[in-house]
Amino acid sequence: MKTRRAEQDYRERVARVVAAIVADPMAEHRLEDLARLAHFSPFHFHRVYSSIAGETVAATVRRVRLALAARLLQEDRQSITQVAMAAGYDSPQAFTRAFGQFTGQSPRDFQQQMRSVALDAGAVAPVRIVERPAQQVHALRHRGPASTIPHTQRLLRVHAGERAVSDWLGISSGDPEDPGDFMYYAAAVSMAPWPADADIELLQIPAGCYALHCLAGPYARINAAINTLYARWLPGSGYEPNDRPALEHYLNSPRKVSQAELRTDLLIPIRAAH
Fold first, then answer.
1. Does CATH place domain 124-272 in 3.20.80.10?
2. Taking the domains of the chain in order of start, what are their residue ranges?
3. Dist CA 20 CA 254 (whole Å)
4. pLDDT tens-digit profile of 25-47?
5. Quick one: which of 145, 163, 209, 221 has the most CB atoms within 10 Å?
6. Cβ–Cβ contacts within 10 Å for residue 113, how many?
7. How many CB atoms lie within 10 A of CB 157?
8. Nearest alpha carbon to residue 137 among 192, 199, 196, 187
9. Cα–Cα distance, 273 to 209 (Å, whole number)
10. How far apart are CA 266 and CA 126, in angstroms?
11. pLDDT tens sequence across 207-249
12. 3-class SS of residue 5
């Protein structure tokens, strides 16, 4: 029990660091300052952070800045050069290389695709209507802004260890732009027994009807695709949102395939419109 409390304390202290990075991505974020925020020794902070977060501080800063860049490109109010400068890159060329590694495509291609998604309802087609049975999952609640969800997914994999997992899911409700309203669980479908763990919850996903769209490409596109489903597809579909969480079913892993080859089933809970 004492070890578990210590681990939770470490996670909460690292979470404060991640929240500080997300709150101000363009700050200098010196290791000494972040270590002080988390109440760790600067000499060992980088090792503690990497063991908890699954990546270095520099990698977190880079990923959060590129997520900011993706959001700016999606808004389509600035040029690629302006977005590169806003994300802290000295040249569009360096930004293009980093963004390509992050999303699997160039900033220009990403921006053009987001334009087509926003303007063309057919860009998210086809949508299938599916019925899913009730399903029990092992779940880890996400703490913090939506941009740090990858940390929670990595932590769940650490908890899973070598146990057989048939599916990896995301379970969400609320507005990702509003931390006070947004709720997300990283979830694993596994028949293998898991030891008792204060962080892992057994959740029951209720049976029901869903609108399913299979998204091709990086996770950075998920939010835009879901927004388009709600704004463009749903009003003329004959359905309305149902009071159940939305699901993300991760069909493959960025550890095994390129960003362009990622496939994610996006599932919006629906019912017949009154």
1. yes
2. 2-114, 124-272
3. 26
4. 899 999 899 999 989 888 888 88
5. 221
6. 18
7. 17
8. 187
9. 13
10. 12
11. 999 999 999 888 878 887 888 888 778 888 899 999 999 999 9
12. helix
